[in-house]
Structures
1.
Amino acid sequence: MLQSFFEWMQGLPFSAWMLEETWASPIIQCAHLVALVGFAGAVLVVDMRLLGRGLIKTPLNQLAREMDRWMIWSFVALFVTGAPQVLSTALKQYYSPFFWWKIQIIVIGLLFNFTIRRRVAFAEEGTLGHWPKVVGFLSIGIWTSVSVYARLIGLLS
Amino acid sequence: MRSLFEWVDALPSSIALRESLNAYPTMLTIHVVSMCLFAGLIAYWDMRLIGFTLKKVPVSNIPTRLFPWALTGYGINLITGALLLYSQPMRYYGNFYFWAKMALMLVAGINMFWFHYATYKSVQAWDQGREIPLNARLAGVVSLVLWAAVVVTGRMMAYSGLMPGWWNNLNIGA
């Protein structure tokens, strides 16, 4: 079922175009990497603050609200530039364990961000004990794992 | 220059790194993660200077509080980048994007030092709530564009078949 879906994606005219057009893949990969930098920065500014590092003179909830839109828009850019890469190399991705680990951790990361991390980052400071540190640490761990697995798809698949 | 690259290429430690199954993926992965730490934080510093974000954060807070982390990322990035170069010097010697990346990093460094030793000295006058001077905003734009170009040329190094025609005509890697 899932394999035939990936075979269908690989067989799309768009996938063929991506593979045949010399500059399509490099341009999209470069844009994906630039979006990754934007996403990583937005996550790190808040996560470091959760850990009691970085911009500690700025209220956490103010920082989290400001970085939230940068995080969301850079994630949208990551998705928009990542999807064509999955389409054009669908079978390579399907057979790569790193791809599936990456997808699973992205889902966990998104759920974690929009539930626990947001609640902690938007809360009144000093009311949650050690939880901000735990959440900041987990968030950095989750998104670092995603970028590690993403890199390993290309290198070890 | 070429003989230096060839000499490194023939060193036993360079060959050992090149032939190791795990060294290249490990170094490249750490290179990418440390790039996120460095370039991610620098991008928001640049955007603060331009006036895109973090407007309520005093400008002087960012170098004090974020630069130690950004520089840690840069340090790790430099070490892993040097190891990647050390492991395959002849692969990079003839690569246009490698030299373009080095040149862009140099210009970005000059821009950073120029900003730090000229424009930033007057930061107390525009630290918060005041309009950021044109010189500082320009330095932010230049830095943002240059570091994005460094990221792009870094990624393009993998595409040795897509180098400009005039570069190929120089036969540098031959």
Note: The first helix of chain B runs from residue 2 to 10.
2.
Amino acid sequence: MTMNLSGGVLADSILWNLNGLGGGVDIQAMAEGQTVFGTFLAPDRDILSDHGIVDGRLIGGGSGNLLNVHSGSEITAPSTVPDGGSTLALLGAALLGLTGLKRRFAV
Amino acid sequence: MKNPKEMSPVIKRLSRLPLARFDFDLTDSAAQVATQTAGSAINGGVHQIDLSGLVKDARSASTAAAALAPTQTFSTLSEGQTIVGGAGLNVIRITGDVTLKTSLNITGSASSTFVFQLRSSTADGHDVLSLMA
């Protein structure tokens, strides 16, 4: 599975948000050239990447759940987006803390 | 780390981290961690630090993002679907589970921000968002 961004959309401007408890995120079996984009934010849910190629961040595994990064996965933090205005305020505040989390958790 | 046995205390330490846990597949990684050659060194170590502030930030960010009013709502996402967003904030609410095996297209501009709110009630232990081959 791959995502295609067009028109100038940036990976760092995409947030996949799974709030609270519940089902998780499964990214796996991606082939060469396939990429998924964005910050996958599921602080209290499972996240599994198994041969997942992510241009973004994986943040999850709280409340007894797991953040699993298995073999073949490539997690690459995208370039930081300059904050262009109020519409980015929320994402900017979120990613400030999340960048630190990624550095500690994502392999 | 020269052999899987030495990984055990490392995994135990990592498992104490408050938000995430690393799940090593030692059958995969053993060959790689055993390739240290003579004269080489492994620097660094395992550090246990208080991440409670970052955990709080992550939960706060998620809660704030979940509270945004949607600009588009879907029951799920389909193979090959194109999500078209405008400049600025685009909040895409998805009420059901999503499984994609081929492609998803996201189009907008360099000033577009997309927040996908996955609101399925699927319980823990199952997947709300599956992206796979």
Note: Chain A has a mean pLDDT of 84.
